[in-house]
């Protein structure tokens, strides 16, 4: 697979690209900051600013390209643009396999995940990793074979410089960044139990060859120098369809199991998990709810269960019982915003109230200064 990339500094942002590039800087400049349409993945917070991913496809050639756009966290000015061909692996930008399952089947949990999806940020906010559309091959029956090849590119968040590229074979089930390594999970089907493999590529010594480890559990997140594995994936939103508790294994990039964390409800980018403070009670309620229809599940009992956010690197915890916890963009990189849910009974316009925020750039302590910035 050949991955073409073009880095444009601010001074070159008025120059259009050649005919092989589907996305032009003029299109990028006209895109409103934070615009979340079907061609935009999501805003990625880095230490150098916020990152947009914009994808466009040429109708004649059916070739898609992505523009990776960095904007200043303070004044929103355009800092650099990197154009990637093939495009970043969004659900609408790659040709769908038409083989065993008839359509692309990794699910929206991969495409929408900020912790292990097609575009991720390292906990320290210094690097971005992007999975590009795979090269697909047909077997004799005209079905796509599982030995597809995908490229992954790691960019320096401050400059857009390409730090490292690797190519992997098989289905890409997820990718994460630690502060010093890229980790990509592949398998020969859409389940890691079928020859699941972790490919680890160092970022400190980019000349070092990637290493591999077997992994029959799902790659679901990362911390400073470790990755997180789970028997199942956790959805981003566990309120509409409760996820229930799961055990998450934290493992070093050398393959050493560091700890097992029970009762995890959600994994966040930046090195945090939200977990139940009484995992046994959460398991009992999940088993009880599994026998009921969605409308009959005891959501009040689930909401009342104690929860906390755990910083995996510092060990610090914050009680978030009854609170909303969502990823947020900070000038230093990934963060979390903890809010008091709105009492929207009779007032559909009611909004939640920010209570505290957490930054992956410090020791895990809660912050209450500057909360007014989150209310805008």
TrEMBL record:
Region called Disordered, residue ranges: 327-353
Listed InterPro entries: Quinoprotein_ADH-like_sf
Domain of life: Bacteria
Protein name in UniProt: Uncharacterized protein
């Amino acid at each position: 697979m050949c991955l073409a990339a073009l880095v444009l500094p601010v001074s070159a942002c008025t120059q259009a690209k050649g005919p092989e590039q589907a996305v032009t800087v003029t299109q990028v400049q006209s895109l409103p900051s934070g615009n979340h349409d079907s061609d935009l993945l999501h805003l990625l917070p880095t230490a150098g600013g916020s990152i947009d991913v914009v994808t466009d496809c040429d109708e004649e050639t059916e070739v898609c390209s992505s523009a990776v756009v960095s904007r200043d966290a303070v004044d929103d000015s355009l800092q650099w643009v990197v154009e990637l061909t093939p495009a970043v692996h969004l659900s609408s930008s790659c040709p769908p396999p038409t083989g065993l399952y008839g359509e692309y089947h990794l699910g929206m949990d991969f495409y929408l995940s900020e912790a292990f999806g097609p575009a991720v940020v390292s906990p320290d906010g210094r690097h971005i990793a992007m999975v590009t559309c795979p090269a697909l091959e047909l077997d004799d029956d005209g079905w796509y074979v599982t030995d597809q090849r995908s490229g992954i590119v790691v960019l320096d968040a401050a400059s857009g410089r390409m730090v490292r590229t690797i190519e992997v074979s098989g289905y890409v089930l997820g990718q994460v960044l630690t502060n010093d390594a890229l980790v990509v999970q592949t398998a020969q089907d859409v389940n890691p139990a079928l020859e699941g493999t972790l490919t680890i590529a160092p970022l400190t010594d980019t000349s070092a060859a990637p290493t591999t480890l077997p992994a029959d559990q799902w790659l679901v997140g990362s911390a400073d120098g470790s990755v997180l594995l789970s028997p199942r994936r956790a959805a981003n939103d566990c309120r509409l369809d409760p996820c229930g508790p799961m055990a998450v294994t934290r493992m070093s990039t050398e393959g050493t199991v560091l700890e097992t964390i029970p009762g995890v409800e959600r994994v966040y980018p930046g090195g945090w998990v939200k977990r139940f403070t009484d995992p046994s009670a959460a398991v009992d309620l999940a088993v009880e709810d599994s026998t009921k229809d969605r409308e009959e599940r005891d959501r009040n009992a689930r909401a009342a269960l104690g929860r906390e956010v755990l910083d995996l690197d510092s060990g610090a915890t914050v009680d978030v019982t009854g609170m909303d916890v969502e990823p947020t963009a900070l000038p230093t990189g990934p963060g979390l915003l903890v809010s008091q849910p709105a009492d929207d009974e009779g007032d559909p316009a009611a909004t939640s109230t920010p209570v505290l925020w957490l930054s992956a750039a410090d020791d895990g302590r809660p912050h209450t200064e500057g909360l007014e910035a989150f209310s805008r």
